[in-house]
Give the backbone structure.
Amino acid sequence: MANGEPGASAPLQRITEQIDLFQDEAAQIEDREAWQLLRVRWVGRKQGIVRSLLGQLKDVPPAEKKDFGQVVNQLKELVEERLASLDEALTERERLQAERSAAVDVTLPGRQPVLGSVHPVNLVTQKIVEIFTGLGYSVADGPEVEDDYHNFEALNFPPDHDPHHAGAQSTDSDHLPRSGLPARQRPSTLADVPPSGRLGGG
């Protein structure tokens, strides 16, 4: 008796319906997660539909056991073949997606490089400046090279002060080549900056 024909036994009719149901469910698979759920539902070792149908063989009338077993095996082969086909198609799709994700689009703007952070010494300097300016102090900037006047006379050092002329001018490392100007002897030379209008090293 052919499957689905009028008068087919109830067990055989039920298997025929299961075949149609599987085909409908398999046609809706779009991703790996759905494929995995379909596989477990139909050929799972514990509660798979195919295994459940095979377990019903003992309850089928003896005259129908042969046909029932053949139809269940056909369903099993159909399910396994379709699952394998879907698995292959999904694997190929995943491979193509991975290739597209890894590809570099040369038409896109370049990636913005990661910028470095502020040096710890500069961070501490900025914090110190914030604290003292908050207390009413101001920040004076000046040149690294000073003339003799701003190194000494402007700070009220007397002319006979030991490093004033003889000591400072006799040290070659304290003077820039060619200019003869001495390097700034002490930070306090900037104390004369605001009154003399030399802020910023002008």
